[in-house]
Write the structure tokens for this entry.
Amino acid sequence: AQSVTQLGSHVSVSEGALVLLRCNYSSSVPPYLFWYVQYPNQGLQLLLKYTTGATLVKGINGFEAEFKKSETSFHLTKPSAHMSDAAEYFCAVSEPGGSYIPTFGRGTSLIVHP
Amino acid sequence: DAGVIQSPRHEVTEMGQEVTLRCKPISGHNSLFWYRQTMMRGLELLIYFNNNVPIDDSGMPEDRFSAKMPNASFSTLKIQPSEPRDSAVYFCASSLGSGGLGDTEAFFGQGTRLTVV
């Protein structure tokens, strides 16, 4: 069975500071991993995904994430936060060859201070 | 493509009434998901269709909830009778599931905010 744990329901940073949102997963097979962003009153949209190949994945809006198998982690980072990055971020996992239903974490709310 | 389209965006109804939420997935996608989002429980998968067939409905809370997908371009989620605890944002998502590989992302609609009073 697959599961996702997002550490910290809220993360607060200053504008221009590093953003780090943590995600750990559990999967019985090498997983596919996703980060989604949800802006207020909107649906979720994909930021980036890891399937195979290079473990450092770059996404939209300057975000990137690194798949670390030994740590079962897929943390999301951005070097410099913008006010417009304030949103809810969800990590998700699915298992290749399985039901391919993505399992989502509880989400982390990113707060950006001026 | 206009993306996943959900209607209505907002629904306020009285307890005991029937509520029907609608979803039009992205053309060509063969997988459709209904999710419920609440502060308490986060994002929960209610039901998953593949090629219009319900594959996993283990997340449907109880018999008051039902979902149909009569064709590839339309799905409904019905609650009858509705209760205040059903108040939530309901999302529909679709994807181009690639034979079980699971590498294709889900595209979400903007959601329906349901309030049962």
The interface with chain A takes residues 4, 31, 33, 42-43, 45, 48, 55-56, 91, 93, 97, 100-103, 105-111 of chain B (CB under 8 Å). The mean pLDDT of chain B is 91. The CA atoms of residues 16 and 30 of chain B lie 33 Å apart.
